[in-house]
Design goal:
This protein has 186 residues and is mostly helical. Helix content is 42%, strand content 8%. The protein is globular and about 60 Å long.
Length: 186
């Protein structure tokens, strides 16, 4: 959005305005009060319009020690990294999509990456993902072991080839199964 951080700058509080409303709604639907959470930003300054990738990298590197000190001062050891910039700062991982929902270990924290509420506002069909990741973080914080993502196994037998050939002329169909459970395959 062209007004990235505008509400935060005015109020002096992270994640307020539309993104904050989205986060608060996801927390409320997950049974969590925002007051029970420590909410912060990977960088505390408002990035200028058209902030470059190099600018983000420099700002994140500059703010990383402050963010780590801030989080170390909190009693909780489970962190939901909202968005790629947050995940990158905490874990060093570059792209968020492959890591959404995984439990990453970094600097004494269990980090659960999720999409940023601003992204969810632009793509509302991702709203359940944010709520599910909050649920996963609650389970992890309670000591529940979240199993690793299952290995992908593809049987390249005649059935697969036949299915691919029949789909060649058809419209593609995508199936996405989400779960807030501990065992995603059950």
């Amino acid at each position: 959005s062209s007004d990235l951080g505008g509400s935060e700058e005015i109020d002096g509080v992270p994640l307020v305005g539309p993104s904050g409303y989205c986060l608060n709604r996801a927390l409320r639907l997950s049974g969590v009060k925002r007051a029970a959470c420590h909410v912060t930003n990977a960088i505390l300054c408002r990035p200028p319009k058209g902030f470059s990738a190099d600018g983000w990298k420099k700002a994140l590197e500059c703010c990383q020690p402050r963010l780590e000190r801030e989080l170390q001062a909190q009693p909780a050891r489970t962190v939901i990294a909202l968005g790629g910039q947050s995940m990158r700062t905490l874990t060093g991982k570059a792209k968020i999509t492959p890591w959404v929902g995984a439990v990453l270990h970094a600097n004494g924290f269990q980090v659960i990456p999720s999409y940023h509420p601003a992204f969810v506002l632009r793509k509302p069909h991702y709203s359940p993902v944010l709520r599910i990741m909050i649920g996963r973080a609650l389970l992890v914080a309670q000591g529940v072991q979240i199993e690793a993502w299952p290995e992908i196994y593809i049987d390249y037998g005649s059935g697969t080839l036949s299915a691919l050939e029949s789909m060649e002329a058809e419209e593609w169909l995508g199936v996405d199964v989400e779960t807030a459970g501990v065992k995603p395959l059950e």
